[in-house]
Predict the 3D structure of the following.
Amino acid sequence: MTKTTSLRLQFASFLVISNWLLSISPSYSQPKNISLNREKAIMVEQFIQSIDTAIYHSNLRPIFFYKELDTNPNLSIYCPRSSFVKHRTLYKKFKEESLFIISDTTDKFHLTIDPLFNFEYGKDYADSSESSYKNTRGVLVKGDIGSKFSFESSFYENQATFVDYIDDFNNTYLIVPGQGRWKKFKKNGYDFAMASGYISYSPNKHFNFQVGHGKHLIGDGYRSLLLSDNAFNYPFARITTSFGKLQYTNVYASFMNLTDGGVTTPPGTERLFQKKAASFQFLSWNVHKRIQLGFFQGLVWQANDSTNRQCLKLSYASPIIYTAALSEGLKGKNNVLLGTTLKLKITNSISLYGQIILDDIAKTKISLHNKTGFQAGAKYFDVFGAKNLHLQMEYNQVRPYAYAHSSPSQSYTHYNQSLTHPLGANFKETIAFLNYRLGDFFTQVKVNYAIIGKDSIGRNYGNTIFNSDDNAYYGINSEMGQGLKTKLRIIDFHIGYLVNLSTNFNIVAGISNRSSVNTLENSQTNFIYFGIRTSLSNVYYDF
């Protein structure tokens, strides 16, 4: 039996078993996706942290919000269904509910509509240039149809100006970090838009199917070295299977290289960019009520040809984890990434977590192909018994040339950004968070410190993952921190007031200090800002 035939049989067997299970399982309440925004989800993470909530899998986000969470009075508002309940007082309407609620008397149809906005103004006092601002307007629609279907859709229109280091990024990579391509706006501004959404179907308690346009994050950390929400939204299909202590997820996605890549654009039409597809498998196993293990495989398929068509093989779409690694290898024409995650619940307040990635295996101790990385972190909820005082510390390290490929079009990227960490590769990073909430007031202190081995003109030291690893400056020998040694330090403090929990409508003021220093650069930013915003996603400017 050939390898291709074997993979086809595996795929067919998976479909047969799936259909059989769908036919015999009873229906149940549809789970919802929890917003990716870190601050908004802290209370949910604290609930899941309890040793007695071992049924939840926290290492793939968006996390599903099951009916059990709605019974907790501190968390019920996080469930989209709770926002469908008609308000009892004007105060509750303003503080907790969606702006518009449509619901039928049979409780089979629910719809909410909310405005989205982000009006920010700030000034960099390390620079005498103009002030920075952001003007975002949008809308969020979400709802349920019966007990098996749910949907969500959002759209943002933005005009903004930025501090110098983000300006430099925008002009180098032709995108706003995590928010897509831009058009010039007035003298030094940017105009950009972003849409996201999904349709979800759960025929029973074992399966959930989603198609949409959005992001995912694997792991329990602030960063992810496997798949994160750092880059722009992408089209995806997600299949989640849950049985007892196991949760198995397949994600199929379509990514874009913002280069022509040999793609021919017909005359009179908009520029075509090079497409590439990807598939991800993630198996989460609650080994014990205190231990959660995860096993990951990512595969970025070979990019399209000059006609923007892709030669797809059935083996690429195999839903069985590790089949791509076995058939393709770690250094084939497709980019394969393997990894594991671990979470240990020490107490109901303290947990440890981590990740290990493997992009290539070295045959010698120090080698170009020793492309690995790891993460280690800890979370401490209600520090020393102080309610709503939360601490998180995290360390990330990725060796040179990780995520890159011999063919630049096959790099582990989308829309000119890494699919994992915003620093790319060849770095060591430490992050610490301290969050506190008192009633509707909240505050956060965040400290980043990183040592990065940056590339310089004509020399590929392994930091920029878009470059071919065939052009490594040191040949087969590589070391952590090689290249232009850069020290990055970011300290951000903000304080705010939560106006409405349903959309995370808040008023915030803060200060951010950034320093990036090497032998060729001394970049300083002292940014004071004020904002009125609805915060439902993560935006990473800490690079």
Q: What stands out?
A: The longest helix spans residues 3-24. The domain at 3-534 is CATH 2.40.160.130 (Porin). The chain has a mean pLDDT of 85. The chain has one domain: 3-534.
